[in-house]
Design a protein that fits this description.
This protein is largely without helices or strands. The protein is about 0% helix and about 10% strand. The protein has no helices and two strands. Strands 1-2 form a two-stranded antiparallel sheet. Strand 1 and strand 2 form a beta hairpin. The radius of gyration is 33 Å and the shape is flat. It starts with 8 loop residues before the first strand and ends in a 63-residue tail after the last strand. About 0% of the residues are buried.
Length: about 80
């Protein structure tokens, strides 16, 4: 099913807006293949990274907030005969 054509003018919240961001109907992307390097060199074995001491420390001293709903007791059907 085809998409409907966009209107030239739209009214949103009593404000006049003119459509100026139309998209092209077709887009062509060119792809240029290239050869990967024939040889790559890397050290074999296990590598180890050592990090320096942190610049700061984050400490939480407040307990988490607990939210409990407080609702009055309403007896709606107590007065029925």
């Amino acid at each position: 099913m085809p998409l409907p054509d966009a209107p030239d003018v739209m009214v949103i919240q009593d404000t006049l807006v003119v459509v100026v961001h139309a998209q092209p109907a077709a887009v062509v992307t060119s792809i240029v293949p290239f050869e990967a390097a024939a040889v790559s060199a890397m050290d074999a074995g296990v590598s180890v990274s050592v990090h320096a001491a942190p610049a700061c420390v984050t400490v939480s001293v407040c307990p988490p907030t607990v939210i409990v709903p407080v609702r009055p007791v309403v007896e709606v059907f107590a007065a029925t005969l």
